[in-house]
């Protein structure tokens, strides 16, 4: 990504010196603050927790998951599981969630997951599978 960004910046500089071109810009979103979750897969596996279990726990807590339907006064309603808003508003709250290992023990995600903030592209553009700019 960094090499492509550097090439895009150079293209803009070159275009700004060309009198035949005006208002040249790179389409898309720029960089922004991003939260990364780093899973120590070896440690998780050693403790009997699969990556799929970690992924499912984070997905359900941060987003939601359809579970089933039930009938309520003659109307079919969906059952959707999601962590309550006060428990998913801060990124650090994800680390307090627990995940079940193969022995049935509940382990906090903080045991094998770490958070880090970084600057990353907010949008990745591809052309025929390759990173691109437009």
TrEMBL record:
<dbReference type="InterPro" id="IPR027463">
    <property type="entry name" value="AcrB_DN_DC_subdom"/>
</dbReference>
<dbReference type="InterPro" id="IPR001036">
    <property type="entry name" value="Acrflvin-R"/>
</dbReference>
<dbReference type="GO" id="GO:0055085">
    <property type="term" value="P:transmembrane transport"/>
</dbReference>
<protein>
    <submittedName>
        <fullName>Multidrug efflux RND transporter permease subunit</fullName>
    </submittedName>
</protein>
<dbReference type="Pfam" id="PF00873">
    <property type="entry name" value="ACR_tran"/>
</dbReference>
């Amino acid at each position: 990504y960094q090499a492509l960004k550097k090439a895009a910046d150079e293209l803009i500089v070159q275009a700004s010196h060309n009198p035949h071109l005006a208002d040249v810009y790179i389409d898309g979103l720029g960089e922004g603050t991003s939260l990364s979750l780093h899973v120590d897969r070896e440690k998780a596996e050693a403790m009997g927790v699969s990556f799929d279990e970690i992924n499912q726990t984070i997905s359900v807590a941060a987003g939601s998951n359809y579970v089933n339907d039930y009938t309520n006064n003659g109307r079919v309603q969906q059952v959707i599981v999601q962590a309550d808003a006060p428990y998913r508003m801060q990124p650090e709250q994800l680390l307090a969630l627990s995940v079940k290992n193969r022995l049935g023990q509940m382990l906090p995600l903080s045991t094998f997951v770490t958070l880090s903030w970084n600057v990353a592209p907010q949008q990745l553009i591809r052309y025929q599978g390759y990173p691109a700019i437009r």
